[in-house]
Amino acid sequence: MKGLVFGSLLAVTGFGGWLSFVVSERTAIKEQNLGFALFEIDKNVPTSKAIQNAGEDTFGYFFKHHFVDASNGENEEWWKWAYKNRYQFARIAFNSSDGYLSEEFKSVNDHNSLKSSCEKVYKKKLKTHDVDESSVIQKEEINLLEEIWLYCSTEGIFPITVEEDYEWDQEEEEEKDNNIHDTEEKINPNYQSRLVAISGNEKFWNNHAKTFFKQDVGKGSGNKATESEAGFSELYKKTGGDRTVKELKELCGRNYEKFREASSKDKIIKETIMFCSLRSFE
Fold first, then answer.
1. Do the domain assignments include residue 13?
2. How many CB atoms lie within 10 A of CB 132?
3. Same domain, 132 and 164
């Protein structure tokens, strides 16, 4: 069973080695559209409801359909499951790693404190100003992003980035992916670790489209789009069959191709970062 393999690997290599193993595992199944389940020890995952209310410009606002609501009592069983099968499972590695655990999750000791820690991250403000393409995301922020996706999301895994996807395709030397190579080679390397890969990530994009279009109460995150050149405002205003996962992914992909020469102040860059990337905290 994969769960047992992961458990053994965690004890031997620590969390960093475990994540490397996870990356290689995702590579093998990326083309199979299986929706990789990271935690397979317990497949009986309780049902859950996504974030319903989140302050604008927060992490929870832009990624609401990816994450389990921490204030909804109906999710209680899911949080108990997540603490046992995600947090405690991963903590085996943290005990042998060097300071990997982010500050937000160091004090977790039961499902309620896990829920509280996730909710605090949901409320964090995201950067809305121009993206500094020369900046380097700090290790602490990377740790936090990886952990919030591991513990608190329905996906249970950090999304595959353009950088990872490109490296895998190069290693595998798959001729059928030449068109993907052509696209990703056009992207400024400073952005590749932030942008979510178009190929793979099926569950991510399905949930992300729900957040963008917001098919239930309230407004979708696409309501934040204002730049006509980027195309997101026009897409958000479409109706019926044009409001699809495919349309959102294709728009992100087309905009990725414009990242090579554009500066961080470019309007297309700014909104593509807003709707197609993992974002950065204030």
1. no
2. 11
3. no
Give the residue numbers spanning the domain of 198: 159-168+186-281
138 in the same domain as 211? no
- CB count within 10 Å of CB 47 equals 8
Quote the CA–CA distance of 62 and 222 in Å, as a whole number: 9
Is the confidence at residue 190, as pLDDT, over 90?
Answer: no
Please report where in the chains the tokens 């992003």 appear, as a residue.
Answer: 145
Residue 236 and residue 257 in one domain = yes
Name the 3-class secondary structure at 196.
strand
Residue 156's Cβ-side half-sphere holds a number of Cα atoms within 13 Å equal to 23
Distance CA 95, CA 108 (A): 14
Asked if residue 75 is part of any domain, the answer here is yes
Identify the band that residue 15 occupies on the pLDDT scale cut at 50, 70 and 90: very low
Same-domain pairing of 164 and 258:
yes
Distance CA(15)–CA(96), nearest Å, equals 8
Residue 100 located in a structural domain: yes
- Look at the chain and count its residues: 282
HSE value, Cβ hemisphere, 13 Å, CA-based, for 263: 2
Give me the amino acid identity at 276: C
Quick: pLDDT tens for 73-85.
999 999 999 999 9
- pLDDT tens digits along 93-119: 666 455 557 889 988 999 999 999 999
Do residue 63 and residue 110 come from a single domain?
Answer: yes
Cα–Cα dist 91/158, whole Å: 17
271 vs 252: CA distance, rounded Å: 10
- Per the domain annotation, does 192 fall within a domain? yes
